[in-house]
Amino acid sequence: MMILHIAMRELRSLFLSPLAWAILAVLQFIMAWLFLVQIEAFLQIQPRLAAIEGAPGLTSIVAVPLLDTAAFLLLLVTPLLSMRLISEERRSQTISLLFSAPLSMTEIVLGKYLGLLGFLAVMLGMFLLMPLSLLAGGSLDFGLLGAAALGLFLLIASFAAIGLFMSCLTSQPLIAAVSSFGLLLLLWIIDWAGKAGQSEQASGLFSYLSIREHFESFTRGAISSIDLVYYLLVIVTALVMAIRRLDAYRLQH
């Protein structure tokens, strides 16, 4: 119950934040423009696709690339949304109020995490309205679209967990944002090292650690237990480390 109370409080604070509204507006504008570009590209090649048996449709050409772009944009902005979760409380000394309340560190961390995840889920829902609008004049592959949407949700859930952990490490929100972005970008491109002449074992390891590599499986319509376990491990590990770090900070102060 207390977790939900903290989550709702965090969600309200995000919707009252000018930064969150600015991010939401800018992303919606960028995504709407890309959506229209993708539709125009599809209309140009549609006559040729009609002559090809088993040709890709609206979902593969418009919807999935749109969500793929959204994944990278959310990598850029999630650190800006997560940077204040704990670090701002530490900087303003209001975290002592949380420590004095009858709350465990687990409740505090999970509450703040769910609040941020709720905001990101609203953002994801607004992104999905664009490809769903294509139903007015065409058909969609709901299996592929659902898999891509699930992959994107797990991806942003991982972004939020990592951002929350980095916010627990410092009292400066800007440092938390830069650190989160650096770590997320490393996980995004780490598979590049495996493609640069590394051994097969190293290449496999880097590919498994790549947060984007697992997302691409969902965009192909494949929901694998390996990918699901990977994202769950990332989320749980980041949240457990955040709880332990916050508990250590409480004991020190």
Provide tags for this entry.
globular, 81% helix, 253 residues, single chain, mainly alpha
Briefly, what is this?
The chain is built from twelve helices and no strands.
Please provide a written account of the structure.
The protein has 253 residues and is an all-alpha fold. Helix content is 81%, strand content 0%. The protein contains twelve helices and no strands. It has helices at residues 2-15, 18-50, 58-82, 87-91, 95-100, 105-132, 142-167, 173-189, 191-194, 200-209, 211-219, 225-252. The longest helix has 33 residues, at 18-50. The protein is globular. It starts with a helix and ends with a helix. 36% of the residues are buried.
Class based on secondary structure composition and strand pairing: mainly alpha
Number of DSSP strand runs: 0
Spans of at least 5 consecutive residues with low confidence: none
Order of helices and strands: HHHHHHHHHHHH
Strand content: under 5%
Query: What would the principal axes of the Cα set say about the shape?
Result: globular
Produce the secondary structure layout.
Elements: H1 2-15, H2 18-50, H3 58-82, H4 87-91, H5 95-100, H6 105-132, H7 142-167, H8 173-189, H9 191-194, H10 200-209, H11 211-219, H12 225-252
